[in-house]
Amino acid sequence: MGIYDGAGIHGTDEVGSLGSRASHGCIRMAIPEVKQLYREIPVKTPVYIG
What we know:
Blueprint: E1 2-4, E2 7-12, E3 27-30, H1 31-40
Parallel strand pairs: 2-3
Antiparallel strand pairs: 1-2
């Protein structure tokens, strides 16, 4: 799911790296959690990052 300038919300199988900086602004989640997010959030839903 794209956010801006190539950054997005996506899954990773490297769960040990979650919570640490490892990219250029992406929000990384465990794969099962990001699959659930994709199923439950309709397209074009506003996302607020705080």
